[in-house]
Amino acid sequence: MRVVEEDLLPSTPGKVKVERPGTMSRHLHRCFASTGTMFLWALFLVAMTATYLSVHSFVDTSSRYFTASWGGLHWERQIRSSASPRRPPGSAEGAGLSVLVTGAAGFVGTHCALALRRRGDGVVGIDNFNSYYDPSLKKARRALLGSHGVFVVEGDVNDGRLLAKLFDVVPFTHVLHLAAQAGVRYAMENPASYVHSNVAGLVSLLEACKDADPQPAVVWASSSSVYGLNDRVPFSEAHRTDRPASLYAATKKAGEEITHTYNHIYGLSVTGLRFFTVYGPWGRPDMAYFSFTRNILQGKPITVYRGRDHVDLARDFTYIDDIVRGCLASLDTAGRSTGTGGKKRGPAPYRIFNLGNTSPVTVPTLVAILERYLRVKAKKNVIEMPGNGDVPYTHANISLAREQLGYKPTTSLEMGLKKFVRWYLSYYGYNRGTHTFRNS
To answer: Which residue range or ranges hold the NAD-dependent epimerase/dehydratase domain (predicted)?
Structure first.
């Protein structure tokens, strides 16, 4: 508006500017000429902007491709080699499985991947190496797997492109899905991570499985936490699981409903395993037995929770080797998926099993066993259990797993903790004489 106002003023103060004939036509000509020029400039700017965005998009896409930790001919050769079964010809166990293990650098994932490789199955792992607990422990597990010929891809199960590429490179016969955000109490600090990993990640994986050709059979880790506020013991697969006590439990229960949906619509063969307090060598540092061990050796106090009316908490502690046998039996007995091209061709198996030790032990008893093997007395702070999602008691009914999987746990808590302590002292380099650790 400022330009227009100035044009209306006389060019010389006190005088009126008189327009000559043809002046208006010259103004109009300039106006249209100016407008045409502006239009051309506008087209030029639009073209330049489009070109910039196109080039920027190409460079950004190319950058992501070239900086990705996966892809390329060498990477594909590593995947194929790791996924190839190595059972001898004519083996009584058959030709061997080709298994994608998610969460392969995790506690259970590492042990299962090693067991599969040792018996001659093909195994490829995937893990995002997040920092929920010390990533160096996960990297040490990856190195252990690598020494046995198991290749672990660094990536996230939420990455649909990566999963599609893996299934394009290898026709996996089975998927053992163990990647998850674990821990009951941490859910109160970072709830979004549980939805991201345990719900969105599961859906992303199932999408890749239902689109794969052939479709793999899926065995995945649910949790005993789904029993929530159930007070009937021992916990049976037939008991209600609609009253979770934590967000972690709720995401695992959601997982059971989601996997049932994919089984029903797409014909995916699905087996869910409800683990009961798994422990052992290479375990998770956030677990009580693990943190108790470190604190006892360092002379720090440990917090022991007690239930209402001074009742000791009890857990159905299950040794890792027993869990591994249950996982492998689930893979071996999983029926085939029946879908093709994302379409169901017939009914497929859907199963859920408890995998526990069926012998609950109180937390004070766990501490006493650790004290004996560590030769150090614990400094205990006994307090009432806070309302953080934990439950006072777990006890697995394993009759269904025993009947259909031949599952039979054989390791007592005493023997299992003895093996764990031996590993712990060796891995962290604890010197009993100086009470110091070589590795922090």
So the answer is: 99-333
